[in-house]
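sorry for the late reply, my laptop died twice this morning and i had to redo everyting from scratch. anyway the thing you sent over, i finally got around to it. pasting the sequence first so we're on the same page, its 140 residues, then the predicted structure underneath. double check i copied it right bc i was rushing
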Amino acid sequence: MAAPVQLREVARVRVIYGDTDQMGTVYYGNYLRYFEIARVEYLRQAGVPYRDLEESLGLRLPVVEAGVRYRRPARYDDELSLRAALPQIGGASVRFVYEIRRLADGELLVEGHTVLACVDAAGKVSRLPNGVRAALNAKA
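ok and here's the structure:
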């Protein structure tokens, strides 16, 4: 049995009015944006800024799979804790897991995952460079 994944807070966001729907709750698709914020900050904290992947290495990490489980709604002006972990680093892919919690009470609102493929600028699958893999493994 695999050990549970240890997620850590990588960013905080406050829900803006534009992120909510007619019911006053965060529109479901916006949680994927919050996942992206968490993922980009996770990479930055690991010493692998996404901009460097693109500009220096010519690589991209498109999302090829996403899953979201909605538990409770976030509302306008809630401050959210974005948590992430990287439990799986493959040869040419990575799998992130996420939790979004309301900061005021710590309640789990949303959890999910994304799988990203590593591709070059032309869209051809490419192996993660050893230096990137080492930095991500050190942070994981």
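The chain is about 25% helix and 35% strand.
thats about all i looked at so far, will dig more tmrw
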